[in-house]
Design brief:
CATH topology: Growth Hormone, Chain: A
Number of strands: 0
Helix content: over 70%
Structural class: mainly alpha
Order of helices and strands: HHHHHHHHHHHHHHHHHH
Number of helices: 18
CATH architecture: Up-down Bundle
Number of domains: 1
CATH class: Mainly Alpha
Shape: globular
CATH superfamily: MFS general substrate transporter like domains
């Protein structure tokens, strides 16, 4: 039994480290962005378009790789994704032309879409019991918060050597981890857990329970990733500070994301293990916390604290929608498919929001973005309240047709 637990712990640790690492090659752009703008390599509108390219390829990659993830070797799939994403970051560090940066960042987005679904699948079939599986998935989800913190910290430290170093360091770390997982994570036999007939990709995509949370899932994607991308630039515009001062305040956001992951198990339990109720409360926190940012001219420390609460709430929603929800499909071998669909919906929202926000900032100012976040949070609350019922979220029994 001890040998089995050690093996499981090793697999969980490798999966955790893998997903934490990809945030080095995702959030590094938000730290490098102000310097890239100052050096006139790229402007705000192009930066928004660049973020959209990542989110679009990530979103559509989730559809493709979600379908493939239930059919191919999970370990090889996510290891290749990390390695390709690492190489894209390293190449951007050489300061290529703007079109080449767009191409490489788009490929980076697609490569990173090959990772989350297979990781969830590996853990689901490593931890057979449902409670152990949920616990392992919650531990894995903390890698997002820790990875975000490390991404901001490491990128901030190496930024003094130029924006190129931000991409080089992230790429090298990811490359080492990707090669390590390819070599050392063992093959997982998933056939023991499958008890139900595999559900077609189209039937899952059209399921009415997924449609009920369509708008809230899009809204959470819009806020989550654009919060990370645009906060440095927003703070510079709101308070007239430089990039070095921005980093001090921005660092609190990934810490709040991590806190959201850590408190999620407690919140989930208190909400009777209902993802819908968790999301409703968290969207309420978002809407109420955003209001002071547009109503009053508040000090920067206060704005940072409020945005940290938003990051924490969105992190809780993300764990409910993208971590716990797909695990309900383990017995029909549809984890990667459902994860891909949910990620696709969320990141399509992030992609549209990114390019839209670049235009809004340039022509309407930063307050328009905050107002937009308030509106979509309020709409999401209404959608979640209407969708709550005694049966909770979709289950394997519902999806088996």
């Amino acid at each position: 039994m001890n040998c089995i637990n050690i093996k499981r712990g090793f697999i969980l640790g490798m999966c955790w480290m893998s997903y934490a690492s990809i945030y080095l090659g995702r959030l590094n752009l938000s730290i490098a962005a102000p310097i890239m703008e100052q050096e006139e390599l790229i402007n705000a509108v192009q930066m928004g378009a660049l973020g959209s390219c990542f989110f679009f390829t990530y979103a559509f990659g989730q559809i493709i790789n979600g379908y493939l993830g239930d059919r191919v070797n999970s370990k090889r799939m996510f290891s290749v994704g990390i390695i390709v994403a690492a190489l894209c970051n390293i190449l951007i560090g050489f300061g290529p032309s703007v079109p080449m940066i767009f191409l490489l960042w788009s490929i980076n987005g697609y490569a990173q879409s090959m990772i989350w679904g297979p990781l969830l699948k590996i853990l689901a079939y490593t931890y057979i019991k449902e409670k152990e599986r949920s616990r392992a998935a919650m531990i894995l989800s903390t890698s997002i918060g820790v990875g975000s913190v490390l991404a901001i910290l490491i990128s901030s430290i190496v930024l003094k050597n130029g924006f190129e170093a931000v991409f080089w360091v992230a790429g090298i770390i990811m490359l080492v981890i990707g090669m390590t997982t390819w070599l050392y994570i063992p093959h997982i036999d998933h056939t023991k857990l499958i008890k139900k007939e595999h559900v077609s990709f189209l039937n899952i995509f059209l399921d009415k329970e997924i449609r009920k949370i369509l708008i809230p899932n899009i809204a959470h994607g819009i806020i989550k990733d654009n919060l990370n991308l645009w906060i440095p630039i927003l703070f510079m515009m709101m308070y007239g500070i430089d990039v070095k001062q921005v980093i001090i305040y921005v660092f609190l956001i990934p810490l709040a994301t991590l806190l959201g992951r850590l408190i999620f198990p407690w919140v989930y339990h208190r909400c009777r293990e209902s993802e819908k109720l968790v999301a409703t409360i968290a969207f309420g926190v978002c809407a109420s916390t955003l209001v002071p940012l547009v109503v009053w001219q508040i000090p920067i420390w206060c704005a940072t604290l409020l945005l940290a609460f938003i990051a924490m709430a969105i992190s809780v929603i993300n764990a409910a929608f993208l971590t716990i929800f797909p695990l309900r499909f383990a017995e029909s071998n549809n984890i990667a498919s459902v994860s891909g669909i949910m990620d696709f919906i969320a990141y399509m929202g992030a992609a549209v929001g990114s390019v839209l926000f670049g235009i809004i900032i340039k022509y309407l100012g930063y307050q328009s973005i905050i107002l937009f976040w308030i509106v979509i949070s309020a709409i999401s609350i209404v959608c979640m309240i209407l969708s709550i019922n005694n049966k909770g979220m979709i289950s394997n029994e519902r999806v088996e047709r």
